[in-house]
Write a structure and sequence with these properties.
This protein is of the alpha/beta class and 456 residues long. It has two domains: 213 residues, Alpha-Beta Barrel (TIM Barrel), CATH 3.20.20.70; 146 residues, no CATH class. 54% of the residues lie in helices and 11% in strands. The strands form two sheets. Strands 1, 4, 5, 6, 7, 8 and 9 form a seven-stranded parallel sheet that branches.
Amino acid sequence: MTHATIVSFDADRMRRYDREGPRYTSYPTAQQFADGISVDEYAQAAAASRGACEAQPLSAYVHIPFCSSPCFYCGCNKIITHKPDRIDAYVGHLLDEITMRSRYFDGNRVMDQMHFGGGTPTYLPKKRLVEIIDRLGQEFQLSHAEDRDFSIEIDPRGADEPILRLLADLGFNRVSLGVQDFDENVQRAVNRIQPETTVARVYELVRSLGFRSINFDLIYGLPLQTVSSFSTTLDRVVTMRPDRIAVYGYAHMPRMFKAQRQIRNEELPNASTRLSLLQLAIGILLLLFGMRWLRKAILRSAGVIPLHDEATAFATETAELREQARRHEARLDWLAALASFKAVLLEGLEVVFIVIALSAGRGMLFPASAGALAACLLVIGVGFIVHRPLARVPENTLKFAVGVMLSAFGVFWTGEGLGVAWPGADLAIVAFAALFLAVGLAAPVLVRRPSAEGLR
């Protein structure tokens, strides 16, 4: 069975280059971190930052590295321990660090984003969690606004109602549950036995306590993972309806992470299967979010939920931006400009390497490069031409169009991940879009009709 993929992947080439490579999960990368930055340089950077000059809100990340047992896939900075004194010593240093860092920032700046990661933050004794939040509250101005983002990573296996209630009382309003995969064979292979019922129980507890957002973390490329088993996991996740879903690719680097040496290389999915797993995840998530956008657009069109007052919202945002420009003297932020340039350059280089890798082996380097350049110029030209007309398109119409497109691509990529060869190859996307468009246009009439009949 041949795959009708948007990009043609050569199976032999994937096997040939299926090797470990550098990971760019942050910028600068971890390899560039060094002790050469002095206290004075940190103070100068904090004082000269755009956030300081414009009195922007603060964000904080708090790392809790402790876990009760190792998950074999994990590449995070973690410490496996059952010694309370070791945890207490770390928390003591952390409290001192919070006090030290607070001196570099204006006390009037509100902290409206905070994230506790690990390790397993909820592995801390409750009194230590309280101490950390209390110290943050003493040294910084923690936000109490409804739209604040105070999140924490949770291992469902060790989360019960008392700890979840404490987190809510401490001000956390978002949680991230480490799901990874619901398949029992995969869980045993990575030393993380976690039944679906455990996740469901914690999920319901979190909902009942009024947390604003729940995120599920998933990983593809784990040992013994198959397209069929991961499809089942995705189906169960979608049924639970988390607010956010994060999907990560497993990076097997046993030379760097000792726990990964427990994973058998022969049990890892090959490059082709990993690609199918990724396609499946992308497809289901596109379909999920596309249907959500489409549903909202249909309900607004039918009058079930009110339309946004776009003119008022635009006028309010414009006035706020003008007020910010009036209060703060315009100046060039060299640090921000340099970081933005390097980030864009890295992304651009990545695209260049993809074009070279996919075309050089087939003797099509020049046509592919010319096509990429032409596509870039076309996008710029079309964007310049249509940006003003698009600004006049009603918001709900744009959401309707985006919902149709996401849903169509979602169905296509879900089938790709399952190994379906769609008739017409990529043209099947057009057929799916037409189908969703027809259903979407008819749905407001059907939704509106029962409501109208009920008023008679």
